[in-house]
Amino acid sequence: MRAISYSRPGGPDVLDLVDRPVPEPGPGEVRVRLAFSGVNPTDWKSRSTADPGSGGKTPNQDGAGTVDAVGAGVEPALVGERVWVWEAAYQRAFGTAAEYTVVPARQAVLLGPDVSFELGAALGIPFLTAHRCLTVAESLPDRLSPGSLTGRTVLVQGGAGAVGNAAIQLARWADATVITTVSSPRKAQLAAAAGAFHVIDYRQQDVVAEIRKIAPHGVDTIVEVSAAVNAGADAQVIGMHGAVAMYADDGGAEVTVPVRLQMGPNARWQFVLVYTEPARAKALAVEDVNAAVLDGAVRVGEDAGLPLHVFPLAETAQAHSAVQDGAVGKVLIDVTQ
Length: 337
Ligand SMILES: NC(=O)c1ccc[n+]([C@@H]2O[C@H](COP(=O)([O-])OP(=O)(O)OC[C@H]3O[C@@H](n4cnc5c(N)ncnc54)[C@H](OP(=O)(O)O)[C@@H]3O)[C@@H](O)[C@H]2O)c1
Fold this sequence. Notes:
This protein is an alpha/beta fold. It has helices at residues 41-49, 117-121, 124-135, 162-173, 185-194, 207-214, 227-237, 259-263, 279-294, 316-324; strands spanning 2-5, 16-19, 29-39, 62-70, 82-85, 100-104, 108-110, 153-157, 177-182, 198-201, 219-224, 238-246, 268-271, 308-312, 330-334.
């Protein structure tokens, strides 16, 4: 099969297109013939710094395709099913930048017949992260479903980002009031297309004053991409028993939080890393995200605020560079090209 592989950490130039034997699924695993691989910041970050191990590693966590073989103990009827794949490369050699990958069966989730592979490959990292951020507050349920966030207000910092977009779409599906921040009119248009009711340009407007107008008692959860920059504002708008869910260190590595101010609402400042979230929370996230997809509530493309940028497999290095350079929208690799 054609696969992208790297044998030392480094820049995009360490990624080579190679010819590899098609991997065999072990006990409890499925093999997926991939259609699309999704690229996320985690893919270039781990390629840059983490030892790929002996024998080389194929990058990229997310993907979508068709199950074409199963290992011992896995239901043979899964062969032929369309699936989305999550965390294929986490502590494993077979990421999704290849014609085939092998994953534990629970990491290949059934896509409905009408759901595109492009959408499937856009789900894993962003949507599972967004689910975690939307469910960690003490004041909120640990599941998302239509109506589960009725009467609740969610603030998504950076609503034109991939995780921001996922958070907006999931929160809307759950009937929350969604406020988001962006840095430009173009990004405002995308965040509104994703479904945000209130879009605040943080370069032009007073974020705290605008949020207070919409949510005088504060917001229930904050999906936070840049805690170092936004902590001061977050601390002023977090509501009673709400959470600031910090999933990235964009804009700075350290956070200063005004302790006394946060004691009042019993606020929770919660760190989020999708790979290591509690197993139960991850399992619920997979179920809920899939339910939202099957409900038709999750979309990709310009109309959904998530423009697609598609690269052929041989240009995986360019796809990684595009994400590293801050491409707006979703970067995908068509592994059949
Ligand atoms: N913890 C986890 O498990 C997890 C999971 C997924 C992603 N991540 C991390 O999360 C980050 C974002 O990932 P992504 O895929 O969503 O990237 P992305 O598509 O590039 O989005 C990042 C967004 O953040 C916005 N942003 C940056 N600084 C901001 C600020 N101070 N206020 C409001 N918005 C701000 C950016 O827009 P402007 O700069 O124009 O405002 C951009 O729209 C990356 O660092 C990634 O590694 C972590």
